[in-house]
Every structure is written in structure tokens, then in C-alpha cells.
Amino acid sequence: MKGMNQNWKVILLLILFVGISYLSLVAVYHIASDRTAFLSLRIFSPGLFAMMAVLVLIYFAADIFRFYFVLRTMDVRVPLGYMTGLAFVNIFISNITPSATGGGFAQIYLLHKKGVPIGAATAGSSIRTALPIIFFSICTPIILIVDPNISRLIPHRSMGVAVILMLAFDLAAIWFVATLIKHPEAIVSMLVRLREHYTREEEKEGSRLLGFLDRLIGETKVFSSHFVSYLHGDKRYVVLSILATFVFLLALFLIPYLLIHDLNPNVPVWHIVLTQVVITTIMYFAPTPGAAGIAEAAFVALFAGYVSQSHIVSLTFAWRLFSIYIGVIVGLAVFYVQIMKKHEKIELC
């Protein structure tokens, strides 16, 4: 019965993602297009799809290797084939759960199932996520200040607030990581106090939250030690993990450039890439599954001026197809084989 309940949860989340994505395209059609055509990939040249196929393969390969090299840095050895499935499961779960909360749990679960300690799996998944976030945290405030195109999405009067919030987030993250590395007992102490407070307030010793806090307290020091082992690990794998992350992000940013360039060859690549950095930052923190709705709105707000109104819906769909939908479809198949077909239970969010 639990397996069936889990299956229904996945199905409902997937329906929600598909529904919001479809309604977002409908909204783009009615608000931003000239309503002469809804959706057609024939507006793109045949040669574009060959280039996109190569770029998407590079995109997926870099996603696989960036996590693989992070784990190798911590001396965790997992077969590359298993890591491939793990990457696509993460894409699928991250895009059907709010704020991509389920992807990390799925990675940790499947790594632990393969024999990797929970602390090492948690550290590896966190570092894999942290590498691009570090990039966005550094670059996005600068782009918000210097790129006038962003005013289409964020009014000038709100720009200062957005920059301050980003810098505050950066400082908080730096403090947390530094404390976790040098004084993990301080983090443990905070978690213990949180547990004691919740126990007094709710008196639910057997609740899921208390169980989660107990596991989190037990794994924090292990997590810290693995985080330190990454920083002081084999420098080859550290460099390769950073390089793979860079290639992953570059491929992601080039997807909209190739699509827009095919429709409007006069658009400079640097302009599209800088704008895409901001859109991706928004997607990382969007509360909807796969940032559906929010991603399309930001994309149209920033890129609609580069193409004909009759092409904007097709352009938006093609961008999501190559950057998200293909990975979700492959990830759904892998997830079905790895989890749902075996009726195993995994917490998605």
C-alpha cells in the first residue's frame, strides 16, 4: 500500500508540473504573442536540431561527471553507469517537486542504496548543488547592476533590494559553510536546541520531523568531515568537478542562444548568456515544480524583444524542451525502473 501511495504521489506531482507548464505556454500565447500560431518547431532551421542534439548530450554528460568527480574527490567510488541513472533521476525529481527539494533526497537515497554512507552522500549532493550556486551568487548581483536588459524583469527601484538580498544570502551561506567546516559542533548544538524546542511544543516524540532531526544531528559531523575531505581531496578531481560544472552551465546558457540566434542572427551571444544567468538564478529559488510558470514568465520578459511575436511561444517551448523536458522524460523512465517498479519508498520533499 505504501508503494502504491508513493506511486500516486509521483504521478500527481508530474501532472502538476505538466499542467503548469502547459498553462504557462497558453498564457504566453495570449499575453506575449500575436496569436497567429500557438506552437510549431518548423520555424527553426533543420541544422539547428543537429547542433542542439550535440549540445544537449554535452549538457547531460557534464551533469553526470560533475557529481561523479565530486564523489571521487571524497574517495567515494560509484560506477559511472549508476551515476548516469542517478543524474536523470535527479533531473526528474527536482523538476516535479517544489523548489527542487526532492532531487537531493533521491540522490542520497540511491547512493546509500549502493553502499555509500549517508554523510558522504549528503555531502556529495550538497557540494554538487553548491558549485553552481556559488557561481550564481557571485555573478548575478554584478549582472543585475551592469545589464540594463534586466530592468524588463526587475524595475530599477527594486534593483538595489534584489542586490542586497543576494549579498545577504552570500554572507549567510559563507558563515554557515565556514562554521560547518571549522566548528561543526556549533551547528549540532543549534539542531539539538531546535529538537528540544519542538519536543516541548508539540510533544510528538515519534513524529517524522523529530526523526529527521535525530538523523540530521547524527550525520552533521560526518557531513562536515566529508566536506573538508572535498576541499583537501585529490586536486585533479576538484579541478575536474569545477570544470564539469562550468561546461554544464555553459551548455545550459548556450541552449537559448542557439535557439534565438537561429531566429535572429544579430543577437550577441554575451547578451543572451548574461540574461540566462539571471533566469537560471530565479529558477533555482522558484517555489513551483521545475520553476514552471515562473521560468516561462522570466524567459518571455527578457527575450521576447529578440524574436517575432508569432515565434515567442515556440521559442519558449523549445527552450524548456531541450533544457528540461527531455531530461525529465528520460529521468521518469529511469525512476520507474529504479523505484516505482520495485515499490520502494523514498521521501520526495
Structure explained in plain terms:
- This protein has 349 residues and is an all-alpha fold.
- The two termini are 19 Å apart.
- It has one domain.
- The model has no long low-confidence stretch (mean pLDDT 83).
- It is globular and about 60 Å long.
- 77% of the residues lie in helices and 0% in strands.
Question: Which descriptors apply to this entry?
Answer:
single chain; 349 residues; mainly alpha; 12 helices; globular
Terminal CA distance: 19 Å
- Report the strand count: 0
Order of helices and strands: HHHHHHHHHHHH
User: What does the largest sheet look like?
Assistant: none
Instruction: Identify the overall geometry.
Output: globular
Provide the helix percentage. Answer: over 70%
> What structural category arises from helix and sheet content?
mainly alpha
Radius of gyration: 21 Å
Strand % is: under 5%
Mean pLDDT: 83
Number of domains: 1
- Number of helical runs? 12
User: Low-confidence stretches at least 5 residues in length (pLDDT < 50)?
Assistant: none
